[in-house]
């Protein structure tokens, strides 16, 4: 096994005449926490979605966990089982209980039996601070609680890569901290994380590396100290001036 978890090389993607990813290359190491920042429309979500083939590149190479997912013959379902994704809008099943939401994927995919899935589900709910909500209906939860359930659900597949696309952007401000705290704990546990966020405090505190996207390009990347204290790229400086 190599230490490289995600290898992206010269990836391009267009929607019609809109060239949204331009020669993107990036390697992410096992256990690394990479935070992606950049203005709206710069291609961050498209990039993230490519890592589990929710989008396919027009050209270039994407290797995840040793699988070349830019090759259409690769069994993407095998790769996806190892990649959790957490979205801005939770994407939970509103008609199921909290615990049922968490148990669903591992049971359906035959990874765990029901007893095992329930045990793990309750442990994960404890981890995200929602042990008492196992039997609650998802509909009754606050946004912050829903997002913590969504994180627990993605962890139920025991992934080794977690992708987060603006996980706190849809939350009321007072809920953001609880979700970020859960993500900070995960980062400490050594899971590979790729996080798109506008939470610069989180990026500073938790990221091993910050990647700045703008106009479909990685304009600059580096350790958080460098990115926030000594940005080199003009567009990055301008962006930071607006968001900080
Ligand atoms: P970000 O996440 O940084 O805000 P996106 O990756 O969502 O950026 O979008 C990058 C560009 O691609 C935008 O111009 C957006 O309108 C366009 N885009 C994204 N998804 C699609 C799609 N499915 N079809 C057409 N255009 C899209
Ligand atoms: Mg986006």
Distance between the termini: 40 Å
| Portion of residues within helices | 25-40%
Low-confidence stretches: none
Percent of residues in β-strands: 25-35%
Tally of helical segments: 9
Mean pLDDT equals 96
SSE order in H/E notation? Answer: EEEHEEHEHHHEHEHEEHH
Taken from the alpha-carbon principal axes, the silhouette is globular
Task: Count the beta strands.
Answer: 10
Radius of gyration: 18 Å
What does this structure look like?
Strands 6-7-8-3-9-10 form a 6-stranded mixed β-sheet, with helices on both faces. The protein has a 4-stranded antiparallel β-sheet with strand order 2-1-4-5, covered by helices on one side. The chain has 9 helices and 10 strands. 36% of the residues lie in helices and 26% in strands. It is an alpha/beta fold. A hairpin with a 2-residue loop joins β9 and β10 (217-222). It is globular. The longest helix has 16 residues, at 173-188. The relative contact order is 0.17. The protein has helices at 44-50, 76-80, 98-108, 114-127, 143-155, 173-188, 200-206, 224-229, 234-243; strands at 4-15, 18-29, 33-37, 59-64, 67-68, 83-86, 161-165, 192-196, 209-214, 217-222. The protein binds adenosine-5'-diphosphate and magnesium ion. Magnesium ion is lined by residues 44-45, 165.
